[in-house]
């Protein structure tokens, strides 16, 4: 019984390493000032308040999007917005811990 309940509430782990290998684009939704103070190499800065204006260009890429920010809150909002627009999107959470998430993902 416990295993059934555990399975129902267990979160599926996202394989960020595999997504990146498949060409996923990392979008940092923090402000330009926050982005300049440090960011993931190769990421694109699109502040959350301007993300809606970039939907068409992100769709054109035809690749999964991984959103990041300072804590994971704004990137979560960005993920919801992009999913509503039909874009394959994942919340990478805080940009400072994203490298750790990649390292703990296994490419199969």
Task: Just give the CATH class.
Answer: Alpha Beta
What are the low-pLDDT stretches, counting only 5+ consecutive residues below 50?
none
Number of strands: 4
Structure classification:
alpha/beta
- Let me know the largest β-sheet: 4 strands, parallel
**Cα-to-Cα separation, first versus last residue:** 31 Å
C-alpha Rg, in Å?
Answer: 15 Å
Q: Write the H/E string, N to C.
A: HHEHEHEHEH
The helical percent reads: 40-55%
CATH topology, by name, is: Oxidized Rhodanese, domain 1
Q: Note the overall shape.
A: globular
Order of strands across the widest beta sheet?
A: 2-1-3-4
By CATH, the superfamily comes out as: Rhodanese-like domain
CATH architecture: 3-Layer(aba) Sandwich
Number of helices: 6
General description of the model:
With 108 residues, the chain is α/β, with parallel strands linked by helices. It has one domain: 3-Layer(aba) Sandwich (Oxidized Rhodanese, domain 1), CATH 3.40.250.10. 44% of the residues lie in helices and 16% in strands. The protein contains six helices and four strands. It has a four-stranded parallel β-sheet with strand order 2-1-3-4, with helices on both faces. β1, α3 and β2 form a beta-alpha-beta unit. The longest helix has 12 residues. The chain is globular and about 35 Å long. The model has no long low-confidence stretch (mean pLDDT 90).
Quick recap of the structure?
With 108 residues, this protein is an alpha/beta fold.
